Amino acid sequence: MTALASVPRSADAQSWVTRVQPVAIYALVTIIGIAAFLYPFWLPSSALPDQAHSGDAPLVAGIVGALALTALLVEVRRGSMTAMTVAVLGVLAASEGLLRLVALPLGNNAFYFFVILAGVAFGPRFGMLLGLSAMAVSAVITGGIGPWLPYQMLALAWLGATAGWFGRITSRWSPRVEVLALGAFGWVWGFGFGAVMNFWFWPYQRDGGDLSWIPGSSLGTTIRHYWSFYVATSFANDAARALPTLILILLTGRAVLATLRRFAHRLDPVTVFEPLSEPHSPSSVEAR
Amino acid sequence: MTGGLDYEGVSFGYPDGPTALADIDLAIPPGDILLVVGSSGSGKSTLLRAANGLVPHTSGGRFRGSVTVAGRNTRDHPPRELADVVGFVHQDPEAQFVVDRVESDIAFGLENLGGDPAGMRRRVEEVMDALGVAHLRDRNPTTLSGGERQRCAIAGALVTTPSVLVLDEPTSQLDPQGAEDVLAAVARLNADLGTTIVLAEHRLERAAPIADAAVLMVDSRLLGAPAAPEFVLAEYPGAPPVTRLGHLLGWNPPPLTVRDARRRARAVDLSAPLPPVPTTPGDVLVAARGLDVHLGATPILHDVSVDIRAGAVIALLGRNGAGKSTLLRTIAGLIPARRGTVEGPADRAYVPQDPSSLLFRSTVRDEIAETLRLLGRREPGAVDRWLDTLGLTPLADRHPRSLSGGERQRVAIAAVAVGGAAVLLLDEPTRGMDAASRHALERAIARHAADGGAVVLATHDVELAARCAHEALVLGDGEVVAAGSAATVLADSLFAPQIAKVLPGFLTVEQVAATAATPRVDR
Fold it and tell me: What is the ipTM of this complex?
């Protein structure tokens, strides 16, 4: 049972249009996000700014932020999220902000495992919103605001959303197997997060070397260059993110998931009205 | 039928849970005060939550039948569409504030319904006057006393002029003065505005006299139709002591108030109560001498001494802020004393007022076993023994945080007591407890004392003190104002137990029964 598998709460929420709308917004966030990451590949070298995304980052942040808020409003309006869900989202985002301050031996990486576990417990849509808001909140707390922020928000949102999908599969497994699977998921995403994040600046580095992108080169060359770049610059950092995430999920996964799922269960009430025994009881007539 | 509340053939079960309401038929006429009584878990809260659609819209679950309030069926109207006709006040006054200023918090409900500012202003003033909280308007709710907070919460629920006000155990967390204030305000509201009031309560000494009718819930069902409280409560174990006394002595109808009972008692001729069995004082387990305690710069206790002996149950009485909790915490070693000493060979264990702060495991059984694990002890059977002693066996596999307040309190006590400390320090242990829980606790306290331990209870519940304490210590403004045997201290007080006010010399119904001089009852 995922948390936000939306349960229609009243007759007008049942048409497919109202069901698809929040999903459409999340899809739009993802499409805009991918575009924001990739469009610099098509920028002519003469138009490159000194600092990656120095001009467009506020715009991307504004659009992503506005869409996230819209998604939240639509969810609440449709009844697929309640005030309680929003409250939990806020509390978890704030907790994430504090977790970002926790210094582990390999860096401040106590941050990613919790988005994964929350995504698994509450589902992909919640995971996406949590990724967006957690990164924004923690950036304010740690002073990490800059042109990279909207890209970090997007990457963490995708991490949360994929965790939500993955959780739909793992929730059918035994807790022990599930935690192992989620640990592996977190380990892989530890590298994946870095691999995605590099793209916010990599297309801007066009010095012609083997580690940078050369405009006009083939896809194969691009991938080879990126791989060299990744191994040379980002691999060690990402390993330092992947390992703590793996360890934290293995250590705390069962207890944290049990607690979060308890809340998820309570936030997602399934109500069944059995038909009135007398078809036209006076009270039901009165009510209309 | 506008101001009333009607349940027709309502049955309900929580998701993955057993039936919580079964075949409820209940019509509450407009302007009545209905008292719902029953033990914890009997379905009272669920019944109340169905009044504004929290059940089933927010809880989920299977719902049959219909609830109609002010002409609206809760099947078709979720709680937000009933907010203008049903005011709902939760058990826990701490949990229902959203704004950090009393006046703004009271206005919150109206603001959300989109009232016009001038009308809102007037309405907020009126409800503050009706509940007597106008002088608190600029305070932060967290700084108020329990009774003040509960009255502010009721004001917040009333501001939308609901025709029905639902109160889930509004006084169970309060001290006697707070409870008195809240219920007086409720009665006045009903008299002035004609608001229909549905009230669930465990502590019936004050609630029963203001109710027009009462109904008893047992195992998700209503036991009969609503009737006058004195008849419904006559055989109920949680009834006020005077009502149980009246039942014992065959008074018909049984009284609900001390005043009624006193009139009836004039005709009663009882032999003197049996003298209390003299107890040989045990060894001193813990001795506190000349304690002066400050919290920050504020002096809390001044020159307090107490001997805790083996086999003793000591009741610590006194108004809020008199220093009861501070004394317990000092004895437990949690607060350093500025002067004076706490010495003795025995281990001390303290159970704080808010049991939630102690609970973190996912089942009741694990919670209790955790204490032994942390102490590095293996005592097979100890967990089951405490589960049994406090009547928790049926709850062993539940999640501690889904229990009611009284049940949580018992889990916390078991989790602390299982550690084996000889001296148990219990802070307000009967908060939110139903009659059965109270009896289980009293038995556990008596057993612990009989086994050579000692118990110190900080409590407002004089009936509890009368039933299980041997000694009593009254604190006033941080000093000991009375100390001695429980019988002497309690009987000699303005806040004596009900029975002592009716039949001087007796403290409890059990004592009256034990003298066996019940002239009006045929045996």
Answer: 0.71
